[in-house]
Amino acid sequence: MSSIIFLGTSGGNAVSKQIQSAAGIIIQIGELQFHLDPGPGALSKAKEYGINLNRNTAVLVSHNHINHCSELNPVIDAMTHCGIDHRGMVLASKSVVLGNEEMTPALTKYHALMPEKIIPMEKSHKVGIDLVEIHALSVEHSDPTAIGFKFFCPKFTLSYTGDTKVTPALLEELAGTDILIMNVPYPGNKAMGMNLDTESAIKIVGQIKPKVAVLTHFGFEMYKAGILEEAREIQRTTGVPTLAAKDGLLLYPESYTSKSPVKGF
Fold first, then answer.
1. The pTM is what?
2. Which ranges of the chain does DSSP label H, i.e. alpha helix?
3. From edge to edge, which strands make up the β-sheet containing 148-152?
4. Interatomic CA distance for residues 92 and 127, integer angstroms
5. How many Å is the maximal CA-CA distance in the chain?
6. Could you give the 3-state DSSP secondary structure of residue 43?
7. Which positions ≥6 away from 217 have C-beta within 8 Å?
8. CA distance linking residue 145 with residue 133, whole number of Å
9. Which of 115, 217, 224, 253 is the most buried (most CB within 10 A)?
10. Strand 212-216 relative to strand 179-183, pairing
11. In b/e form, how buried is each residue of 96-123, taking b as 16+ CB within 10 angstroms?
12. CA dist., res. 33 & res. 59, Å (int)
């Protein structure tokens, strides 16, 4: 049985207020364990929810903003027993691994020696790990090398948008998604910068029609507007079961891809 555990669900301007954690997401598929976007609190929340980070198969980082990658190096420490076990992978945007003109790499040279493999992923890049194939999604964000992730698993397809605005390329690449996890920091049509709001989430969900949509990475404005109310609006408009994630939320993807009916929020 596969599972998805939300270690943290805050994003943007809500991270510093610690309304919720920003520790990322754990995806377990059989014996494989993936840690997405290990931001502030990744180690402490993993311990709180009983996640053994030494079991990580790979750490995946969508882009080089601190609320997505601040605990990348400590998580690598945990995955490799401080480098004693030369194991695991890092799949990350080029800015995380190599930096760019505006940002230094989040991955330190010291920690880069610990995993078995490090892959700077670019848009449309594909990586296979056992029976899971991971595609880098063509997102558009203020970090120009930012990516999302699409997991092709034996029994379901899961996509994580990361931070992005809606683009035709992204909509095309999300087609066929069963479990859609979207970073939606803004309510209504109030998105700032290259991010999603409720209106843009409705556009994505309405076109892709996943089995279930899950909202996360909430900004302060989203908390003020009411996360459940925004999720209900997406479900009402699209007819797709829509969940508002909270820290510690545990989902079983196969339960949404079976023929049994499911409920949102």
1. 0.95
2. 42-48, 66-69, 72-80, 94-98, 109-112, 168-174, 198-208, 220-225, 227-238, 253-257
3. 126-129, 132-137, 148-152, 157-160, 179-183, 212-216, 242-244
4. 11
5. 51
6. helix
7. 9, 10, 11, 12, 22, 163, 183, 184, 185
8. 20
9. 217
10. parallel
11. bbeeeeebebbbeeebeebbeebbbbeb
12. 9
Pairing of strands 148-152, 179-183: unpaired
Backbone angles phi, psi at 206, to 5 degrees: -65, -35
Burial 157-195 (b: 16+ CB within 10 A, else e): bbbbbbbbbbeeebeebbeebbbbbbbbbbbeeebeebb
Contact 7, 249 (CB under 8 A): no
- Residue 163 φ then ψ, to 5°: -90, 125
The CA-to-CA distance between both ends of the chain, in Å, stands at: 22
DSSP string, 158-186: EEE--S----HHHHHHHTT-SEEEEE--B
* Per-residue pLDDT tens digits for 165-186: 999 999 999 999 999 999 999 9
Q: DSSP class of residue 41?
A: T
Measured in whole angstroms, how far is the alpha carbon of residue 181 from the centre of its chain? 7
Is the CB of residue 163 less than 8 Å from the CB of residue 141? Answer: yes
Distance of alpha carbon 140 from alpha carbon 211, whole angstroms = 25
| Residue 41 near residue 22 (C-beta atoms within 8 A) | yes
Q: What angle do CA 61, 196, 18 make, to 5 degrees?
A: 65
137 in helix, strand or coil? strand
Number of neighbouring beta carbons within 10 Å of residue 81: 12
pLDDT tens sequence across 205-253: 999 999 999 999 999 999 999 999 999 999 999 999 999 999 999 999 9
Strand 132-137, strand 148-152: pairing: antiparallel
